Structure formats: C-alpha cells, structure tokens
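From: lab user (bench 3)
To: helpdesk
Subject: output format question, protein + uridine-diphosphate-N-acetylglucosamine

Hello, I'm new to running complex predictions and I'm not sure whether the block I got back is the full result or only part of it. Here's what I submitted:
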Amino acid sequence: MALKILSVVGARPNFMKIAAIYDAIKEFNQLSLREEIRHVLVHTGQHYDANMSDFFFNDLELPKPDLFLGVGSASHSEQTAKIMERFEGVLQNERPRIVIVVGDVNSTLACALVTKKTWCPGVDEGESYIPSLAHVEAGLRSFDRSMPEEINRIVTDSVSDYLFTTEESANRNLVREGVPQKKIHFVGNVMIDTLLRHRSKAKESTILSDLQLSNGAGAKSFAILTLHRPSNVDDKDTFSRMLEAFLEISKCMPVIFPAHPRTLKRIQEADLSDYFVDHFMEGPEPWDSRVRIRLIPPLGYLDFLSLMSEAKVVLTDSGGIQEETTILGVPCITLRESTERPVTLEDGTNVLAGSDPQRIVNEFNKVSHSKMKGHSSSPRYWDGNAAKRILKVLFDEFCPERSIRIPHWKAETKSNEFSQS
Ligand code: UD1
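Helpdesk reply: Thanks, we reran it on our side. This is the complete output you should expect:
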C-alpha cells in the first residue's frame, strides 16, 4: 500500500517550500514505476488573493489543492481556530500516516496542533492512530517572542516527530531546547531546491522590460523593497521614519516596492500615500523628477525571482528573501533587529539594519558604492536536494522493507553530530 502523506500550504511563503516536496514525490513515484507515495495537498486559504496564492500555483506547476479550507483573513486567534476546526475533519477523512507542515505561518501552527491531537480511524479496521508530524524548516529562532512567527515555530517544533532543519544554528537550537537528536534531520533548504529548479525559467520573465528596468545593455540599477511585518508597518511613526530612508535611497536608484496587502492597508489608514507613486499609473520614467517609492502589486514567483536576480540591492523584512538573496549573491539589507537565519549573515549576503533610517541608508551606501555583487558561499546542503533527503528519511522509516535505493537520494544527515556549542 502507498505511503500516504498530507501536506499543508496556507500563506505565500509556503508554496515554494511544498513545491519542492511535491516535485520530489513525483520524481520518486516515476523512478519507482508506481505510486509508492500518495500525496494529498491541503490549502487552508490563509492567503487567498490571486497574486498572493493562485499565481504561485501556476508558476510552480503545483496541482490544484485536493482540499481548500477557505479560512481567509481574521485575527491571529480566529484564523488559527478556524483552520484547526476545519483541518480536524480533513485529517479524519484522509487518514494520512504523515502530515508535513512548513515554515512558521499560522497555518503551520494550526495544522501541527490538530495533527498531534487527532485520532484517525485505522485503515481496514486497524487500530486508530495519531499521524506523525514532520516540520520542514524546524529549529529557526529569532529569540524575539513578540513575532507571531517565533511563537508558531516554537510550538510547532515542540510537537513535531520529525524536525527537518536548514542550517546548523537550527540543530543547535533544538538540542538546547531538549529535542532528542534522533528526531532532528539536517537536510538543507527546500526553498532553495525550488529556486535552483526555476532559475532558468525565471530568465524568460519579461518583468524587467515591463517595468522599464532594462535597456539594450542589460538591467539598470534598482533596489527592491518588501515590507509587511507588524513591527515595521503597524506603527505610523516607525513606518514613516523608514519611508524617509527609502526616499533617500530612491534619489540614487528607483526603489521598486511590490506591496503586500496588509502594508497597502496601513499606507491608506495612516495616510502615507504621498511617499509613493504608482509605478504603472504614473509611468516609470523619468525617474528623477518623481523621487518616490514606486508601488507595484505583489508579483508571482518567477517575476519576483527574475527581478531579485537583477537587483542592485534588496531591502526586506521577509525571512525567505534573506535566504534567496544569499544564493543569488545579491546584497540583502534586512529591516529587522534579529534574524532566525544567521547563516545568511555568516555565509551569505545579508546584513541587519533594523528600522533605524540612518542605519538603513548607511548600509545602502556601503552596498551601492561597492562595484561587486554580494559575496556568498552556499550554506551546507543548500544544493537542490533537500526535499529528496526529507522523503528518504520518511520513506525509510515508514516503509523500511521498500527502502529507497536510488542514486542521489542518499540522506547525508547525521543527527548525532549536533552539539550545543
Ligand atoms: C503571513 C505570515 C508571515 C509571512 C507572510 C507572507 C503568519 C503569522 N504570518 O503574514 O509569516 O511572512 O504571510 O506573505 O502567518 N491579505 C489580503 N489578501 C491575502 C492575504 C492577506 O488582503 O491574500 C491581508 C488581510 O487583510 C490580512 C493581512 O493581509 O488582514 C494579513 O494576512 P495574514 O495571513 O494574517 O498574515 P500576513 O501578514 O500575510
């Protein structure tokens, strides 16, 4: 009988992570010449706008979700509760052996809790059971408990059976928190699997010329800004002081801002629209006469990857973009005081600038005066094979008699090498 795995997506950063796992399952079934793994994809509907969700399914060639829970926006508690309520029935009907959750969004937390509290009826009148829970991107810690994502990470890790990590700091964090080493599997980064797989396709995107950011000789110098964290955009004073810094930067090069819906709302509520021009409505040229931040709608995966690859610098408060710029070798100025992804500071192109305008401008000046692209080396296991390592661990554990013997599918993880230092 096929091993049944159910995976959960909910919000934008989940789609590229699950895409890697979906692709690996497809490849594994093809190589096995039968459906060894039966995959069920559940979308909670936390993100529901076309440009926050549907475009990603097209770009990543993800199939339509098998089940859509349609929860939409609400307060954190209400959103989490709605997902929990709806996911419980799904789990009892679907009866997977394993549930995979990724990242740190509310959908991750909600489905993790439900998985570990739900008894599923046994298959073929077998005994009822609680499915196993696998958390992909486990162990990351910002040590800032005012971030909802940090709470989601800590709670999800604490109930997970398989903790798949992306970097050494995550292994150390989990060991320090008392997670048994045998549960920790250092497999690498599934988001980078997806980036590497789609990089050449992203080159076909026309976004640079659509935004008039290229000329015959190649891309012009431009910066990308993404900003949506409550700590940056919810307080009008903090947000407007940061906007002053971006205005300063826009005197040197266009600042292109694909704005998240929650940020757009804050701009309207706080009456901050004077800082911006609508890039499409007001025309991309001439840059100099309209020194403002250039708003565009959120982009699909391939367009954003294409834009990011050619940017002179990326300014962001996102988690995943810190990792993507590291692999692309593009300088990243992170608009937060801490990062749960320290490997991007050590091996990558990332620097922390917080929300202080002077620090942001100083970091920008350093980057823009450098002739070179950012320097980085790939962190360990960020090599395009993380999802395969995850499947190898799970399949060997649940189907030891049919253990995978396919070249390149070797899990190189040794949990006993993790130390607390
Ligand atoms: C969520 C994640 C965050 C991730 C981000 C990426 C949590 C706690 N946070 O934050 O980790 O970095 O997604 O995008 O899960 N909205 C829309 N359309 C949509 C989605 C959201 O208009 O398709 C608006 C809603 O009005 C909502 C607001 O955006 O009030 C926030 O959405 P929500 O899903 O609660 O969290 P994000 O801020 O997007």
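A quick orientation on your result: The first helix runs from residue 12 to 32. Let us know if anything else is unclear.
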